[in-house]
Amino acid sequence: MNTLGDFPAAMRETAREENVEMIDLNVMSKTLFEALGPEKSARAFVHYPSGSFPGQEKELKDDTHFSNYGAYQLAKCIVQGLKNNRSGLSDYLLKDLPEFGPSCPDAVEFWDFPHSPLVNVTKPDGN
């Protein structure tokens, strides 16, 4: 479901008007999530049953923030976008990076990246 309204089209038009490079992550992520399908695309977001983490008593269902898997797949989209644009930034990428097509994401069933260790965060005074 598209919840972004006219924003993607406005972004593309602005990039054309300003003559700047643009990575269309809207199109790439749509392709990625359609390739994954409804069940597997949920694994790209913060969806974890209760008890997955210490002190987590409730199920987590967040369709805004990415899991490690989802963040990695979108990072690969951005890298591919830099390569496709032949952006000056692409000069800083490793030369032997494989091509990535969002229609062929890494298999979520075989993908593993450990979660960051839990830490206590103290909010600084004044914020």
From TrEMBL:
Q: Is Transmembrane one of the keywords UniProt gives this record?
A: no
| Transmembrane helix is among the record's keywords | no
Q: Per UniProt, what is one GO molecular function of this protein? A: hydrolase activity, acting on ester bonds
Q: Which UniProt keywords apply?
A: Hydrolase
Chain ranges passing through the membrane: none
Q: Which Gene3D superfamilies does this UniProt record tie to the protein?
A: SGNH hydrolase
Name of the protein in question: Uncharacterized protein
Organism phylogeny: Bacteria, Pseudomonadati, Bacteroidota, Cytophagia, Cytophagales
